[in-house]
């Protein structure tokens, strides 16, 4: 009796979620265009900002823009990669797959766990490609492998949390086209009104509070610190969020997951009951 109870709880969610994740990852082979976006887009962003905009952006004395840039590109790309969950959920809704899943003897949250888990795999591939491209343009991680891996792990944790927001949006909008527009509205201000591409000091005063407390700014600052891409003579941020960017990023990730996991599960149940 105990075994059955355990199997119907978290273990079943993980087991069924793994099956759903494999279903999503198989799409890579069947729809190779997905891999084109996952792999080519990061390369384009790195090269574009490094060689086209890099010469026009001043990030302060003693700091190379290419090293300043990579942390921001990492943060932007994993956040954009999280939109796969929203688009996939909207597509499954539109094509009736949610109704099929409802008829299967599986955990109600397994589809969501599998979908957001597949995003982690996509983001791992993106990070590998971006790191290689960054090395090509001159970026280096100066604090050793353990801190570099910690930076990548932090990026994946934050992106996983964003995936749950996108999954929830994908379940409440009527089509894939709408989720693409909705994702753009949410993600563009977060990524571009941040310190991802330009220093905080370059923003006008009325935008600085948003930039300083923007979670994307925090995760960008955190990975730059962990990579060792901030020189010793750089000015110390005067706000708590950027003085403790790792803690602030993790707090946001926990808050987002705690809020949007139940919201997503509830939206999935409502969608499956229609």
Shape: elongated
Distance between the termini: 33 Å
- Mean pLDDT rating: 80
Percentage of residues assigned to helices? over 70%
Summed up, the helix count is 13
Structural class: mainly alpha
For the sheet with most strands, the description reads: none
User: How many E-type strands?
Assistant: 0
| Low-confidence runs | 1-8
Determine Rg (CA atoms, Å). Answer: 20 Å
Along the chain, the helix and strand elements come as HHHHHHHHHHHHH
DSSP strand (E) fraction?
A: under 5%
Explained architecture:
The chain is an all-alpha fold and 274 residues long. Helix content is 76%, strand content 0%. It has 13 helices and no strands.
Short description:
The protein is mostly helical. The chain has helices spanning 2-7, 10-30, 33-53, 65-81, 83-95, 97-102, 110-137, 145-172, 176-192, 208-213, 215-227, 240-243, 245-272.
Describe this protein with a few key phrases.
274 residues
Secondary structure elements and pairings:
Blueprint lengths: L1 H6 L2 H21 L2 H21 L11 H17 L1 H13 L1 H6 L7 H28 L7 H28 L3 H17 L15 H6 L1 H13 L12 H4 L1 H28 L2
């Amino acid at each position: 009796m105990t075994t059955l109870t355990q199997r119907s709880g978290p273990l079943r969610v993980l087991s069924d979620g793994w099956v759903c994740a494999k279903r999503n990852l198989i799409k890579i082979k069947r729809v190779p265009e997905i891999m084109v976006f996952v792999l080519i887009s990061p390369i384009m962003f790195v090269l574009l900002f490094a060689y086209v905009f890099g010469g026009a952006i001043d990030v302060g004395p003693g700091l190379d823009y290419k090293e300043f840039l990579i942390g921001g590109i990492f943060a932007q790309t994993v956040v954009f990669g999280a939109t796969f969950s929203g688009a996939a959920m909207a597509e499954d809704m539109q094509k009736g797959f949610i109704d099929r899943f409802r008829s299967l003897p599986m955990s109600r949250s397994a589809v969501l766990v599998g979908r957001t888990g597949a995003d982690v795999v996509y983001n791992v591939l993106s990070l590998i490609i971006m790191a290689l491209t960054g090395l090509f343009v001159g970026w280096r991680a100066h604090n050793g492998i353990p801190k570099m891996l910690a930076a990548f792990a932090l990026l994946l944790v934050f992106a996983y949390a964003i995936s749950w927001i996108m999954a929830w949006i994908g379940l409440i909008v009527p089509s894939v086209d709408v989720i693409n527009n909705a994702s753009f509205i949410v993600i563009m201000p977060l990524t571009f009104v941040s310190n991802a591409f330009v220093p905080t000091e370059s923003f006008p005063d009325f935008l600085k509070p948003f930039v300083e407390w923007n979670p994307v700014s925090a995760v960008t600052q955190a990975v730059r610190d962990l990579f060792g891409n901030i020189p010793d003579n750089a000015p110390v941020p005067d706000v708590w969020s950027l003085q403790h960017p790792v803690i602030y990023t993790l707090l946001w990730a926990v808050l987002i997951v705690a809020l949007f996991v139940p919201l997503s599960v509830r939206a999935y149940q409502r969608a499956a009951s229609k």
